[in-house]
Amino acid sequence: KQLLLFSRNLQYLHLQRLDCLDDVLWSHVISKNKLTNLISLTLDQCHSLSGNLLEDLVDRPNSLQILNIWSCRFITNLNKESMKKTIRRENYDMCFRCLPFMGFVTIPLPEFGLGNNEVVDTEVLDVEG
Fold first, then answer.
1. DSSP 3-state assignment of 44?
2. Residue 105 contacts by C-beta under 8 Å, 6 or more apart in sequence?
3. Closest Cα to residue 50, out of 80, 13, 88?
4. Taking the model in full, what pTM does it have?
5. Which among 22, 38, 80, 107 has the fewest CB atoms less than 10 Å away?
6. Is 41 helix (H, G, I), strand (E, B) or coil?
7. What is the pLDDT along the chain (129 residues), one digit of tens a residue?
8. The dihedral of CA 96, 81, 42, 109: what is its sign?
9. Angle value at C-alpha 49, between 43 and 53, nearest 5 degrees
């Protein structure tokens, strides 16, 4: 939040897996910092942000040249098409890439063990004194 609120000259922003970034927070940030110097924005699996606010970002004055939206749950095909129409209509020089939400992906956990073929002994010994 502090980075977004006070970095007026921010040019490149890549946000990944930020569930705390929702419409309320984004609106608050934009009200304090217009992000007019932003050249590149990537939102990767930011599932709490809706497409309506991103449509507004495309629509208002900015320096945006690259907008990547990767698998964000509430950014729909309608939002995507609307942003594409705005970019074409206004003849913006912008690279816009949007991959649809494909479901939640679990991050694989590392295997439990000490080495290649080592077995961890989990037997509890009852030792009396």
1. strand
2. 45
3. 80
4. 0.77
5. 107
6. strand
7. 888 999 999 999 999 999 899 999 999 999 999 999 999 999 999 999 999 999 999 998 899 999 999 999 999 999 999 999 999 999 999 999 999 998 876 667 677 655 555 544 444 444 454
8. negative
9. 95
